[in-house]
Design brief:
DNA-binding; alpha+beta; 233 residues; elongated
Chain lengths: 233, 233
DNA sequence: AAAATAGTGTCTTTAAGACAATATAAA
DNA sequence: TTTATATTGTCTTAAAGACACTATTTT
């Protein structure tokens, strides 16, 4: 509750990050364990206060580096939503600008200064255990997931999850993980080859027939959306 | 680097509104003329500082009521983006959360407390005269327009521009105004009748054959996007 | 040769694109 | 009856859905 004499409009501003990756065919989100009060010991999204000399993107990339020791050039960062509900933070009027990031499969993060731990958590597990997240981070992850799913319909950004080069099957597994559905391999392949470029290499370390490798082409935004329709469901 | 003694993260937070309507077949945005410094006398979006006891939506609706004397129940309000670049406001660190609103054709707004004037301005004219808007409101309007155009592809929210009941032609004129293109009447009609409900009335005050009236059905989000393709272009 | 995985052919179905003719009112 | 606007019919074309078979590698 605010009882002081601050002029209207003064708030404390944080930036929180919902960083997604796909590991072992499942969508994961990066969670830290809070090292400080409030919600000490609870899982939360990485984030922190905006500094005087930073814009939002810079703050987001700084937090990202601090929490994951990852250089931001390989990932995709996008502003998600701003959360300002009264009472969302017990310390007073704290507003957060949430960012969404898509990352290729990364090394396990090393906990940073404000975090007692950091780990990749499967999104479905996180969202099926409502009670445990700090602040309104459950809502942020819910909104972020919805945004990621929509991004895969209208853009080629799913390729960011795969890193530099990848096979069509690997890309399909990304879509299947994010959308939680099985896709028809033939129809999927026909569609994504419209925006992929072949690479003169093959995936050698597999069992069966070696797969061709591709990289993302210049297209970022699709003319028409990717079909999001399950085989089974 | 912190150059004053405020704790990290303290900013002043405003809410700005990009309120759109369609009048005379053209998309308009509500602009005020600033009554106070900085940018006194320049056109700007309506908006103002967040108050202690408000969340963002409440502040947006309050600003809307103050500037237009409109009740918010008939319009659609959606958070657009948060702007926090250094130097965007000469008064210091001011961050704004921009909202987007779609409104039916309204009475001419009455200037409120902070505004010397208020008017509906054609969006194309506003965006072709870069220099004149206060703060980064040119960028906000640009982003808002892009969002409105995308909304019309994936949702039925264009009906909000038309008020309660409307003809298919009136709805088509909305799409044509927002997208700046001509659409095929037959194909457009076939598509939108999928989410409209007929009303037992007709438009009587016209010249030619009276048109059937419709209202928006329960669908808000479209399974597949509206085709956004011009006849001429 | 058996197992594992990658890659392709093609028919059907759905919905958009491109047309122009007919219907119903007021003037 | 002329003018103005609304409404509808249908053929063509583009792309998704639904199939199952062939290809290339390792073991």
């Amino acid at each position: 509750m605010l009882t002081d004499r601050r002029p209207a409009g003064f708030v404390r501003l944080t930036v929180d990050l919902a960083i997604f990756t796909v590991r072992d065919g499942r969508l994961h989100v990066l969670l830290i364990e809070r090292g400080n009060s409030p919600h000490k010991g609870q899982p939360a999204l990485p984030g922190g206060f905006l500094r005087e000399d930073e814009d939002l993107e810079k703050a987001a990339l700084r937090e990202l580096a601090e929490e994951t020791h990852l250089d931001g050039s390989r990932l995709l960062l996008e502003q998600l939503h701003t959360y300002a509900d009264l009472g969302r933070d017990s310390r007073g009027r704290v507003v957060t600008v949430a960012y969404l990031a898509l990352a290729p499969d990364l090394p396990v993060p090393v906990p940073g200064s404000d975090a007692a731990a950091a780990r990749w958590a499967p999104v479905d597990e996180v969202l099926s255990s409502r009670d445990r997240l700090a602040f309104d981070h459950f809502d942020i992850i819910t909104d972020a997931l919805e945004r990621v799913r929509a991004m895969l319909e209208t853009t080629t950004h799913a390729t960011v999850f795969c890193g530099g080069t990848f096979t069509v099957t690997e890309l399909r597994l990304v879509y299947e993980a994010v959308w939680s559905m099985k896709l028809d391999p033939r129809n999927f392949s026909r569609r994504v080859l419209e925006f992929l470029e072949p690479v003169e290499e093959k995936r050698t370390d597999t069992h069966g027939r070696p797969a061709k490798l591709y990289r993302a082409g210049p297209t970022r935004v699709l003319d028409r959306p990717m079909a999001r329709r399950s085989l089974d469901a």
